[in-house]
Amino acid sequence: MTDLTNSDKLIAELEKVIKNPRKVKSGEELLVGVDLGTAYIIIVVLDKDKKPVACEMEFAQVIRDGLVVDFLGATNIVRKLKANLEEKLGVELTKAAIAVPPGTGEKDTKTHSYVVEGAGFEVTNILDEPTAANMVLNITNGAIVDIGGGTTGLSIIENKGVVYVADEATGGTHLSLVISGAYKITFEEAEKLKTTKERQKEILPIVIPVVQKMGTIVREHIQNYSVEELYLVGGTSCLEGIEKIIQKETKIKTIKPRNPFLVTPLGIAMNCKV
Fold this sequence. Notes:
The structure is a single chain. The protein has about 270 residues and is an alpha/beta fold. The chain contains 9 helices and 12 strands. It has a 5-stranded mixed sheet with strand order 3-2-1-6-7, with helices on both faces. A 5-stranded mixed sheet has the order 10-9-8-11-12, sandwiched between helices. The radius of gyration is 18 Å and the shape is globular. The two termini are about 35 Å apart.
């Protein structure tokens, strides 16, 4: 089993700078990662030693199942988050890395790039989301399961190398739709309820069928590989108890790092080339 002590410490440092950005010097080399998620757009800023400096995020419905459905809306949000960070840090952010779900086609990958470039960044690296996550987790052998808002991405790691990737259109959005129907509330209210820690034990039984489907997806993709551990990342993985359902469905030890929501954005920034 991979020791996640250092990974969790790095994530904790990132959590701190969300409200309290670190001071930076003019001309200091900074690494930036832009995560265009189905539910949130996140920008993470690191120093040259890959230590967290600042982070901005905004809830958005401009990406669906990993694809840009509102180009202008996505560009405006990235531009706004970039401006917020530049104001807080007192420096201009010029270069950024991005990530896309595994298996994203060339055309859709370019659209992600155009969004970030339209907001004023030079895109210096593009990678798939589970691979970005492993920059943080440093898994030698196992599978990273990235459960985002729109998709469940999977990356099988053997000897620190990615040997298989997959992506399926089932994610947190589907949980929110089920919650919305069960409580007879709007989708936006369901999203908020889903992320309210005090209500998650109450919500879990309602969404178990969707989580079981995610587990089935994972089981089918890993069946031809010798995978002994699963590592959950992505915003939907924050749901309390989700790892137990995935483990029961796959019969494979399932591990959840501290705040899975921040793992992939952090890994994207770590891959920025300056």
